[in-house]
Design goal:
Structural class: alpha+beta
CATH architecture of the largest domain: 3-Layer(aba) Sandwich
CATH topology of the largest domain: YojJ-like (1
Mean pLDDT: 77
Strand order of the largest sheet: 2-4-3-1-5-6-7
CATH class of the largest domain: Alpha Beta
Radius of gyration: 23 Å
Oligomer: single chain
Number of strands: 7
Largest sheet: 7 strands, mixed
Low-confidence stretches: 102-113, 265-285
Distance between the termini: 73 Å
Order of helices and strands: HHHHHHHHEHEHEEHHEEEHH
Shape: elongated
Helix content: 55-70%
CATH superfamily of the largest domain: DNA integrity scanning protein, DisA, N-terminal domain
Number of domains: 2
């Protein structure tokens, strides 16, 4: 009753100005969260929320050392946000400067899978044809972690995924053949996108720029990256910083099905791991 009474007393002291202040802060936070929902920054917000919960629990239970660690993390999370998420912050500031804050914040959140079963067929057939012609390609399939910050570095397309479109984009000599393509909800969201290069030295020496860019993006997001080598035509796929090199279009299709359509083909989930394990065993012999 004392707790409830304190709340009632506190509410009774709120005047019109205080209420307006709370309303403005609530709206600002709502718009901000909606604005960053398609970027990697939302993952940091979730992490901070978990740390805050742990902080409260450790404070109540008087777990001093863990509580001190959580306090230290929260004290510097703003600095971490600025350093680690400069592209997302730049995107947010640009949208506010262009007067797109309200428009972008109220766009519906997509609930569809990253790419549908028919589009997986289209994509794998497209990659096979590009491989046969030795046309270099770098394609990222967006999943849970938003790629709006990556999309903002390229040329907006928002076109239906098709062989003709990707062949036109990656055709040597065209204006958009350099850079990567981002696929979102069965559509080519943008082309000429800049992917961050991996910082791992062993991978820097083993692969070219296109492969290093694919590995780099997969290290900081959960996107699936498909790469076609311009020199050899070989197909590679990258997930969570691990690259599977020189696979067939059939292997690629089965892998995409296992990751993006697990309910449709649950037996294929182990394909990627098994293939990589078998190749490692052969190389070790």
């Amino acid at each position: 009753m004392d707790f409830l009474g304190n709340i009632i007393t506190y509410i009774s002291k709120i005047n019109l100005i205080d209420g307006l202040d709370i309303l403005c802060v609530t709206i600002a936070l709502f718009l901000l969260f909606r604005l960053i929902r398609g970027t990697r920054a939302i993952q940091l917000i979730k992490g901070v929320a978990v740390v805050a919960v742990i902080l409260v629990i450790t404070s109540k239970l008087e777990i001093k050392t863990l509580n001190w660690m959580m306090v230290s993390i929260l004290n510097y999370w703003v600095i971490a946000l600025i350093i680690l998420f400069q592209p997302e912050l730049r995107l947010i500031i640009e949208q506010i400067g262009r007067g797109r804050l309200f428009k972008e914040s109220f766009l519906p959140i997509s609930k569809h899978p990253a790419i549908s079963l028919p589009m997986i067929n289209v994509l794998t057939e497209t990659v096979r044809k590009l491989s046969d012609k030795k046309v270099g390609a770098l394609i990222a399939i967006e999943r849970e972690v938003g790629l709006n910050d990556i999309i903002s570095t390229g040329q907006p397309i928002n076109g239906e995924l098709s062989y003709e479109l990707l062949d036109t984009i990656f055709h040597p000599g065209t204006a958009m053949h350099d850079g990567g393509v981002v696929i979102h909800d069965d559509k080519v969201a943008a082309a000429m996108c800049l992917f961050p290069l991996t910082s791992k030295e062993q991978q820097n020496s083993a692969y070219g720029t296109r492969h290093r860019a694919g590995i780099g993006l997969s290290e900081i997001t959960d996107a699936i990256i498909i790469i076609v080598s311009e020199e050899t035509g070989k197909i590679s796929v990258v997930l969570n910083g691990v690259i599977e090199h020189d696979i067939t279009a059939v292997d690629l299709k089965e892998f995409l099905l296992s990751v993006l359509q697990p309910n449709a083909t649950p037996a294929l989930k182990r394909l990627f791991t098994n293939t990589r394990a078998n190749k490692n065993k052969e190389e070790s012999k």
